[in-house]
Known about the structure:
Elements: H1 2-25, H2 45-51, H3 56-59, H4 74-81, H5 89-99, H6 120-125, H7 130-134, H8 151-158, H9 172-175
Helix pairs in contact: 4-5
The structure holds heme C (5 copies).
One heme C binds near residues 39 and 106.
Amino acid sequence: MALRRKWLTVSGFIAIAAAATMLSAFSGASTSQGFSPEQPVHFPHPLHVQTLKMNCLYCHFSANKSPDPGMPAVATCMGCHALVAANKPEIMKLAAYWNKKQPVPWVRMHKVPEYVHFPHMSHVNAGVSCQTCHGPIQNMTQVYQYSSLNMGWCVSCHIGQSNPPFKARYDCAACHY
Ligand code: HEC
Ligand code: HEC
Ligand code: HEC
Ligand code: HEC
Ligand code: HEC
């Protein structure tokens, strides 16, 4: 009887381990650190942020009011590029999307799994800078994923281990529900 119970426990454990492996392998573990896909239009952050002094929120317009930071509509770009650099090859690609009334199919980089709740506005309004999590975007000629986005990364900041330090809830239900 004792032996049987032990084997049930072992197989139960294996089932959970297998399920957890499948969960992280297939159903969307966070995207990986360093990930830097080629984009359909080679958009230069350094030029727009440093030279033109554009605020991140000009394009990622809802980072301070919604869970989702927002991506710029083609119309936001064409506000300038209908005239600015209109004859450059990358801008001609942009204008082609505009003329077809299609959004630019930007390749998504940063992504946490569906079972994780990540509200941008709570972080931005608590004074955590974009760069704390996304690194020096203003210097990246091609954006890459700077942080791991794994659970240890989230929790170590919530318990006050980041530089500069912050504090936030770290009970399971804060991030999983
Ligand atoms: C003029 C508009 C514009 C401005 C200003 C801008 N961005 Fe972006 N951002 C984009 C576009 C377009 C993309 C998608 C193409 C790319 O990755 O370069 C993007 C991509 C990103 C991504 C990667 C998104 C993903 O898929 O995970 C991050 C992070 C980001 N921006 C952060 C910032 C930060 C931080 C600032 C301010 C320092 C900023 N951006 C300023 C337009 C802008
Ligand atoms: C406030 C005006 C403004 C907005 C809005 C803007 N840009 Fe620009 N962009 C510029 C200027 C100015 C340049 C530099 C043009 C030059 O070098 O002649 C530039 C340069 C570029 C270049 C480099 C062109 C090249 O090959 O030299 C790309 C690509 C680009 N922008 C894409 C975008 C995209 C995509 C968006 C929307 C997410 C956007 N821009 C929004 C003003 C803007
Ligand atoms: C506390 C860390 C943190 C801060 C601060 C932060 N982000 Fe993010 N960002 C993330 C995470 C995590 C994701 C992936 C979220 C998801 O999958 O829902 C992400 C995703 C993004 C994306 C991709 C969204 C998409 O729909 O493609 C953009 C763009 C972005 N962030 C821009 C910004 C900007 C701009 C700021 C500052 C105003 C900022 N972030 C502040 C952690 C952060
Ligand atoms: C660099 C620090 C930092 C990192 C990294 C970070 N957070 Fe946070 N988080 C905060 C701060 C600060 C707050 C706001 C606390 C407050 O307003 O009381 C917050 C708030 C939250 C909230 C809202 C909690 C509530 O009170 O309802 C959630 C959910 C959350 N974070 C999830 C995440 C997840 C998921 C990750 C990782 C993908 C993450 N955070 C990474 C600092 C961080
Ligand atoms: C501050 C946010 C945060 C808190 C608090 C948190 N988690 Fe997570 N958790 C995450 C993130 C982000 C991931 C996704 C990690 C990845 O994809 O690499 C995750 C993943 C997981 C996974 C899946 C692991 C895998 O490899 O597939 C489990 C199980 C889990 N968390 C359980 C818990 C439990 C139990 C607690 C409470 C003790 C907890 N989490 C607290 C953010 C959090």
